[in-house]
Structures are given as structure tokens and as C-alpha cells.
Write a structure and sequence with these properties.
There is one protein chain. The termini are far apart. The protein folds into two domains: about 5-80, no CATH class; about 95-155, OB fold (Dihydrolipoamide Acetyltransferase, E2P) (Beta Barrel). A hairpin with a 2-residue loop joins strand 4 and strand 5 (about 150-155). Helix 1 packs antiparallel against helix 2 and helix 2 (about 25-45) runs antiparallel to helix 3 (about 50-70). The protein is of the alpha+beta class and about 160 residues long. The chain has four helices and five strands; from the N terminus they run H-H-H-H-E-E-E-E-E.
Length: about 160
């Protein structure tokens, strides 16, 4: 294997591993890792000393690059665009304040057959009945709240 081909494999492998960050999926990283291994293996076939130096160089360059990536990338301009500012532990897929609607009365904004919209405490909400039809502008009362599902009956 020629020195130029070995160098091309090492450079291409490093570029593909770096590109894996921006194009996720695992394929580019795996192909890049294979190219790095084949390049280092080819260097060992050329000369044991050259292969050892190239292996140590790839490990050191990879380790230093990984350290700088973890340390400085999150605070860079591109890192701030790719990394979330907050975690999602406080996020809920439903409104926690919906439980306060239990027992409240309102007006059917649309015909509820059995799903529609209602005005309750000045807020327009998606509601559903237990199966019965309720005409538009009829008085309604909230009997159950389960997540985003607000169940109403005729008041």
C-alpha cells in the first residue's frame, strides 16, 4: 500500500468521523473508523515504526480533538446553535393548570358532536362529551380532566 493512499485513508477517516457530528446516523462514523483502522494497518504493513508512530498520532490527535470538542464546542457559535439551552425535565405535553377547570362552567363555542370547542373562564378549549351531542351556545360543565382531555356535560 502506498504512502499517499495511507495518508488519504487517515485524512478521509478523520473527516468522516468529524462529519458524523453534523450528519448523524452512525454510517459515516463507522466508515471513518474503518478507514482509520485500515490506514494504520497499511502503515504497519509498510513499516512497524511508521505504523506505530501513525497509530500513536491518531490516538493522541483523536484524544486531544475529543477533549477540545467537549470543552470548547458547546460555547462556540455553532455549538450554541446545535445544543439545547435547557433540558426537558420540566416540559409536559399537557397544561398542568387544566386540573383547575374541574367543576367549572362555560359555553359550547361549537357544536359538540361529541368533540368541539368551548369557552370556559374566557379561554377557548378543545373539549369532548361522553358521547352525547351538545348544541352550540349551550351551557356546559367540566366533569373530568385527564391530561389534555377535558370532558364536559350539559349544565
Amino acid at each position: 500500500m502506498s504512502v499517499g493512499l495511507i495518508a488519504a485513508m487517515i485524512v478521509a477517516g478523520l473527516l468522516l468521523v468529524f462529519a458524523e457530528v453534523f450528519i448523524p446516523g452512525g454510517v459515516l462514523g463507522v466508515v471513518g473508523g474503518i478507514l482509520l483502522l485500515v490506514g494504520v494497518g497499511g502503515a504497519f504493513g509498510h513499516s512497524v515504526l511508521w505504523g506505530s508512530v501513525l497509530f500513536v498520532g491518531v490516538v493522541i490527535f483523536g484524544g486531544v480533538g475529543f477533549y477540545y470538542w467537549i470543552t470548547y464546542f458547546p460555547s462556540s457559535r455553532m455549538g450554541r446553535k446545535l445544543i439545547l439551552d435547557t433540558n426537558g425535565k420540566d416540559w409536559h405535553s399537557f397544561d398542568d393548570t387544566a386540573q383547575d377547570l374541574l367543576g367549572k362552567e362555560g359555553v359550547a363555542h361549537s357544536k359538540l358532536r361529541p368533540v368541539g370547542t368551548a369557552i370556559i373562564e374566557g379561554k377557548r378549549l378543545d373539549v369532548m362529551t361522553r358521547g352525547e351531542m351538545i348544541e352550540r351556545r349551550a351551557a356546559i360543565r367540566v366533569i373530568d380532566v385527564e391530561g389534555n382531555k377535558v370532558t364536559v356535560v350539559r349544565a
